[in-house]
């Protein structure tokens, strides 16, 4: 049996993968289901698995940061990722195993089969990080996977106007006038958009720098987005916004 741990901050992803492993990969025994990176790190150190299914984008500590905290990687890793099709090329080049969300059970079976047949467990995480970074920088059109109640909604980053906090949820507003409610806090959404041209201008608002039409000066001032919507800028966030506009 292959002793495995699932690590993902999305409970439906953890539970769905656990069910699929039971159904399609009986040679895999899931010894822990972890709903966050901190919990996953503890489980790895205590349970010493043969294999981990590891999400990349997680709050507090992402998958790469988690791996960096482990001195001796003597287990296999299958990354579960919602990265777009361009970034997935990096996984292929680095010869690491990955599953693209939403996970297809045939892909899962193939990944587990590859693990059972693999002799060399050497992985090149540094190479993968560089490739992912270069992919993000070199591709003009990016997509991001937004977690909704129904699953994952893949959208072009350029189509996002701004994100607004709605209690423990976040509403995403799009250029074509549509909006969608995510079961994520604004802090988590900001982390998802990190590395792209987005900036938090208020405790309740993250905007797409590319979609700003005007910045109106004031105590904090406000921005006018491409759809005509005016959004207040807090005094604490004013300098950060102006700096990002200058360097954009």
Write the layout of secondary structure elements.
Elements: E1 2-7, H1 11-24, E2 28-34, H2 37-47, E3 51-55, H3 63-68, E4 76-81, H4 85-94, E5 97-100, H5 105-117, H6 125-138, E6 143-147, E7 152-156, E8 160-166, E9 169-174, E10 179-182, H7 186-192, E11 198-202, E12 205-208, E13 212-216, E14 222-225, E15 230-232, H8 235-247
Parallel strand pairs: 1-2, 1-3, 3-4, 4-5
Antiparallel strand pairs: 6-7, 8-9, 8-12, 9-10, 11-12, 13-14, 14-15
The fraction of residues assigned to DSSP E strands is 25-35%
Radius of gyration: 20 Å
Distance between the termini: 52 Å
Q: Percent range for helical residues?
A: 25-40%
Specify the structural class: alpha/beta
Strand line-up of the largest beta sheet: 2-1-3-4-5
Can you walk through the features of this model?
This protein is α/β, with parallel strands linked by helices. It contains 8 helices and 15 strands. The chain has helices at residues 11-24, 37-47, 63-68, 85-94, 105-117, 125-138, 186-192, 235-247; strands at 2-7, 28-34, 51-55, 76-81, 97-100, 143-147, 152-156, 160-166, 169-174, 179-182, 198-202, 205-208, 212-216, 222-225, 230-232. A 5-stranded parallel β-sheet has the order 2-1-3-4-5, sandwiched between helices. Strands 10-9-8-12-11 form a 5-stranded antiparallel β-sheet. Helix 4 (85-94) packs antiparallel against helix 6. The longest helix has 14 residues, at 11-24. It is elongated and about 65 Å long. The N and C termini lie far apart (52 Å). The model has no long low-confidence stretch (mean pLDDT 83).
Features:
248 residues; alpha/beta; five-stranded parallel sheet; five-stranded antiparallel sheet; 8 helices; 15 strands; 35% helix; elongated
């Amino acid at each position: 049996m292959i002793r495995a741990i699932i690590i993902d901050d999305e409970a439906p992803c953890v539970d769905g993968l656990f069910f699929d492993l039971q159904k399609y990969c009986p040679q895999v025994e899931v010894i822990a289901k972890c709903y966050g990176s901190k919990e996953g790190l503890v489980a790895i150190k205590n349970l010493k698995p043969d294999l981990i299914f590891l999400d990349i984008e997680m709050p507090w500590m992402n998958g790469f940061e988690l791996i960096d905290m482990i001195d001796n990687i003597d287990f296999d890793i299958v990354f579960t990722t919602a990265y777009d099709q361009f970034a997935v090329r990096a996984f292929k080049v680095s010869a690491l195993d990955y599953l693209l969300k939403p996970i297809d059970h045939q892909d899962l079976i193939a990944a587990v089969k590859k693990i059972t047949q693999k002799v060399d467990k050497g992985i090149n995480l540094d190479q993968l990080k560089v490739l992912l970074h270069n992919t993000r920088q070199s591709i003009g059109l990016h997509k991001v996977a937004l977690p909704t109640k129904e699953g994952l909604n893949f959208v072009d980053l350029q189509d996002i106007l701004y994100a607004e906090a709605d209690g423990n949820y976040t509403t995403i507003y799009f250029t074509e006038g549509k909006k969608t409610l995510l079961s994520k806090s604004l802090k988590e959404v900001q982390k998802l958009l990190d590395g792209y041209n987005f900036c938090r201008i208020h405790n309740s608002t993250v905007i797409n720098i590319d979609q700003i039409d005007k910045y109106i000066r004031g105590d904090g001032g406000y921005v006018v987005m491409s759809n005509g919507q005016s959004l207040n800028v807090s005094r604490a966030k004013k300098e950060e916004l102006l700096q990002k506009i200058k360097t954009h």
